[in-house]
Amino acid sequence: MKIIEAEHYQDMSEKAARFIIEKVNGLSAPVLGLATGGTPLGTYKCLREDHLSHKTAYQHVYTVNLDEYVGLAPYDENSYTFYMKKHLFHHIGIPSSHTYLPNGMAADLTAECERYEALIERLGGVDLQLLGLGLNGHIGFNEPGTPFSSKTHVVELTESTRKANARYFDSLSSVPTKAVTMGISTIMKSKQILLLVSGANKAGILARLLSEEPHEGTPASVLNMHENVVIIADRDALSAVKERSMIF
Ligand code: GLP
């Protein structure tokens, strides 16, 4: 695990974007695993700006997103499909046929989970998986207690995750109660993982995941078992980490 300290959110975003651009330029058909939430917004902005100024091409890139709410249509402003189009896909010239998210409107969600898992395999697996970190240690929508062996599945969102995400909705009651998410084993199959963490409110959970043995109570602690993880975190997020020798 490599931990890179960024000065602040903007610096974290620029470093993360550079990391992603290297993959995009370095592989003939890269598969990027993408995340939503507040954390990667700055990274996506840097990718948009880079595409404008340096013409980085995305015609050869494929993307699979971590998760999607159940019951939100793709045109719903709160769906992750809408988020990805708005913040990234519409601006970088990636063919829409190369961008995949779980379908939260599928009539048969179990079949949808199997389809998504098979799709990732058909693409040859994820080369670089971008992750944010939930306040309770969730990755994707894998809440505490999710088995490390889990594949893409339907999850019942916890009250704390629904409250944390309510800022994007009109009210807490309009936040969906379920989502489809890549499972922990799906995420762990990625060849490389890039975890982004920003802000003092994430300092406690980041310090925990770095100091704990992997256990299912803190989903992100599983990353300690992956052999190719890079964490880019800003100074505030790293403020509670005692073992400084591991930080670059
Ligand atoms: C959400 C998403 C996660 C995200 C996390 C943190 O629930 N499903 O993929 O990483 O919460 O969100 P934020 O970056 O807004 O703190």
Automatic annotation (TrEMBL):
<dbReference type="GO" id="GO:0005737">
    <property type="term" value="C:cytoplasm"/>
</dbReference>
<feature type="active site" description="Proton acceptor; for enolization step">
    <location>
        <position position="67"/>
    </location>
</feature>
<feature type="active site" description="For ring-opening step">
    <location>
        <position position="136"/>
    </location>
</feature>
<dbReference type="GO" id="GO:0042802">
    <property type="term" value="F:identical protein binding"/>
</dbReference>
<feature type="active site" description="Proton acceptor; for ring-opening step">
    <location>
        <position position="138"/>
    </location>
</feature>
<comment type="pathway">
    <text>Amino-sugar metabolism; N-acetylneuraminate degradation; D-fructose 6-phosphate from N-acetylneuraminate: step 5/5.</text>
</comment>
<comment type="similarity">
    <text>Belongs to the glucosamine/galactosamine-6-phosphate isomerase family. NagB subfamily.</text>
</comment>
<feature type="active site" description="For ring-opening step">
    <location>
        <position position="143"/>
    </location>
</feature>
<keyword id="KW-0119">Carbohydrate metabolism</keyword>
<feature type="domain" description="Glucosamine/galactosamine-6-phosphate isomerase">
    <location>
        <begin position="11"/>
        <end position="228"/>
    </location>
</feature>
<dbReference type="GO" id="GO:0006043">
    <property type="term" value="P:glucosamine catabolic process"/>
</dbReference>
<dbReference type="GO" id="GO:0004342">
    <property type="term" value="F:glucosamine-6-phosphate deaminase activity"/>
</dbReference>
<dbReference type="Pfam" id="PF01182">
    <property type="entry name" value="Glucosamine_iso"/>
</dbReference>
<dbReference type="GO" id="GO:0019262">
    <property type="term" value="P:N-acetylneuraminate catabolic process"/>
</dbReference>
<dbReference type="InterPro" id="IPR037171">
    <property type="entry name" value="NagB/RpiA_transferase-like"/>
</dbReference>
<dbReference type="GO" id="GO:0005975">
    <property type="term" value="P:carbohydrate metabolic process"/>
</dbReference>
<comment type="function">
    <text>Catalyzes the reversible isomerization-deamination of glucosamine 6-phosphate (GlcN6P) to form fructose 6-phosphate (Fru6P) and ammonium ion.</text>
</comment>
<dbReference type="InterPro" id="IPR006148">
    <property type="entry name" value="Glc/Gal-6P_isomerase"/>
</dbReference>
<keyword id="KW-0378">Hydrolase</keyword>
<dbReference type="GO" id="GO:0006046">
    <property type="term" value="P:N-acetylglucosamine catabolic process"/>
</dbReference>
<dbReference type="InterPro" id="IPR004547">
    <property type="entry name" value="Glucosamine6P_isomerase"/>
</dbReference>
<protein>
    <recommendedName>
        <fullName>Glucosamine-6-phosphate deaminase</fullName>
        <ecNumber>3.5.99.6</ecNumber>
    </recommendedName>
</protein>
<dbReference type="InterPro" id="IPR018321">
    <property type="entry name" value="Glucosamine6P_isomerase_CS"/>
</dbReference>
